[in-house]
Amino acid sequence: MLTLLGVSIGGYAFRQISGQYLTDWIYTTIQHPLENAFQSPAGLFIIILVCRAFWFLGIHGDLIIKPVRDPFLAAALAANGISEPMVFGLPLVLNTTMLIPSILSVMLCSGTALFASTIGFMPCNTVDVAFGTPVLLSALIGHGWQGVVVQIIGLALATLVYVPFMIIANKQAEAEQAAQN
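User: That's the sequence. What structure does it adopt?
Assistant: Structure tokens below.
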């Protein structure tokens, strides 16, 4: 009861001082600019960069940015794959060799999908595809056959980005193994 009274008095005082409802002020000064930023290509790449930077430090990047990202991206549904096996199996955490492909591959795949949607090749996602749906099936459900094509292109691009770095990582592992023997 006290919380409701306090919020009501605070909202009334804000309205009297500013001439605007607090919820309207929050929307126009905070939420709307953030929505525009997060739903732009630059915003997408910033989100990816921040997420991958957290992963590099050993922090689950997706979970850290989720509370900030999800409310703004709820209207722009996207099918997400599960990257944990790659992140923890390779590992990517504090692995400077894999930092560049980890960031670059996600940006290339996201940029490819954004480009395909922008030119009208791939329809926008209208279905909330369940998290963990297999790769090509998620694209088919969310975007039709065009999504499958774009996802195959993305997989090819990611593979091309990762191959040189995997070769370097293998050589580093061989050198470490030789040094131990």
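Helices lie at 2-18, 22-38, 41-56, 61-73, 84-89, 96-118, 135-143, 145-180.
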